[in-house]
């Protein structure tokens, strides 16, 4: 397994994997291109893929650079550990079902954090799907140093109503909760 920057030769596979893991209409080409744009700063791309020995996607992570994403009603900046302009955003991650539990998610997260630090970010925020099987998303993010900022109900409902997203649990009317969590980046000495 290798971790590589997310480039256009992986776009189609990333979209398929995102929709398989997160639900139909979760990601399309326009959305992915926007994620790559928001994740690239100072010529550095903070979005990554994990590929097997045949260069097939087995996981990915999209991440936004600090100051290149919008703070919305699902954010609680007055509780964040750093100023808004130093906060990056961990947008999306998915691991192929057959590759889950092999430590791929933490490796993708680490790769993104390394680039985010180079871009000048001091912390990263995520909205984690609390209804993921076994609450795995929150568990893995907590293990990586994430701390809970807030819990948001119906976080993905607007995506269902406006963009046709179909949640793998709730269908076309998602009432899942999001754990707003932050990781403070430790600067390597």
UniProtKB/TrEMBL annotation:
Q: Which Gene3D superfamilies match?
A: 3.40.630.30
Q: Show the GO MF annotations.
A: acyltransferase activity, transferring groups other than amino-acyl groups
Domain of life, per UniProt, equals Bacteria
Domain N-acetyltransferase: from-to ranges: 1-170
Q: Which UniProt keywords apply?
A: Plasmid
Is the Ribonucleoprotein keyword given for this protein?
Answer: no
Q: What InterPro entries has UniProt attached to this entry? A: Acyl_CoA_acyltransferase, GNAT_dom
Task: Tell me any Pfam family this protein matches.
Answer: Acetyltransf_1
Q: What is this protein called?
A: GNAT family N-acetyltransferase
Species of origin reads: Pseudoalteromonas xiamenensis
* Lineage of producing organism: Bacteria, Pseudomonadati, Pseudomonadota, Gammaproteobacteria, Alteromonadales
């Amino acid at each position: 397994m290798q971790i590589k920057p997310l480039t256009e030769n992986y776009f189609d596979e990333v979209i398929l994997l995102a929709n398989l893991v997160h639900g139909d209409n979760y990601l399309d080409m326009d959305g992915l291109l926007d994620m790559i744009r928001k994740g690239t700063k100072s010529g550095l791309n903070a979005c990554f893929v994990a590929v097997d020995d045949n260069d097939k996607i087995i996981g990915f992570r999209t991440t936004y650079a600090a100051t290149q994403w919008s703070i919305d009603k699902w954010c609680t900046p007055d509780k964040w550990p750093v100023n808004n302009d130093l906060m990056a955003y961990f947008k999306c991650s998915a691991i192929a079902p057959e590759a889950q539990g092999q430590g791929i998610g933490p490796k993708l997260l680490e790769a993104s954090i390394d680039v985010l630090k180079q871009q000048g970010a001091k912390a990263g925020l995520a909205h984690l799907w609390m209804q993921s099987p076994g609450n795995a998303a929150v568990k893995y993010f907590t293990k990586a140093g994430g701390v809970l900022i807030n819990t948001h109900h119906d976080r993905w409902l607007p995506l269902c109503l406006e963009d046709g997203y179909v949640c793998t649990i709730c269908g076309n009317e998602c009432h899942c909760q999001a754990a707003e969590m932050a990781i403070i980046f430790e600067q390597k000495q």
